[in-house]
Amino acid sequence: MITIINDTPENVAAFCASGEITKEDFENVVIPRVKKKVEQFDELNYLMYLDTDLENFTAGAWFQDVLLGIKNLSKWNRAAIVTDKSGVQNFTEIFSVLMPGEFKSFPKENLYNALFWCQNGNEVQS
């Protein structure tokens, strides 16, 4: 299931993925919210908090199809993937070369920093 993370910066479309993720999650939750943010801000600042394993993404929801679909209707600016899975963190860094905008991974403990980066383009000073 994908849910919208509330109480985030206005210019950030933020989501939490938990349990099984389906194509319908993206069609009914992610894509409408992304469209709304792009219409409001003429760019997309996106955050996905992964509270599930990638094995829980059904074939129809797999990143290749979903992210490429979103790419075609969006103006990527910044995208943060929040996860403690090193494989996903590495994939995010590689994927950033292929996509427009900036992609960055953050560990779960740094959710606030990820939101701040999505909103402002820089990280909170520690």
CATH architecture: 3-Layer(aba) Sandwich
**How far is it from the N-terminal to the C-terminal residue, by CA?**
33 Å
Query: Cα-atom Rg, whole angstroms?
Result: 13 Å
Order of helices and strands: EEHEHEHEH
CATH level-1 class: Alpha Beta
Number of strands: 5
Q: Any low-confidence stretches, pLDDT <50, length ≥5? A: none
The overall average pLDDT, rounded, is 81
CATH topology: Rossmann fold
Indicate the percent of residues in helices.
40-55%
* % residues in beta strands: 15-25%
Overall geometry comes to: globular
| Main pleated-sheet profile | 5 strands, mixed
Structural class: alpha/beta
- Strand order in the largest sheet: 1-2-3-4-5
Pfam family, one: SpoIIAA-like
Organism: Chryseobacterium oryzae
Protein name: STAS/SEC14 domain-containing protein
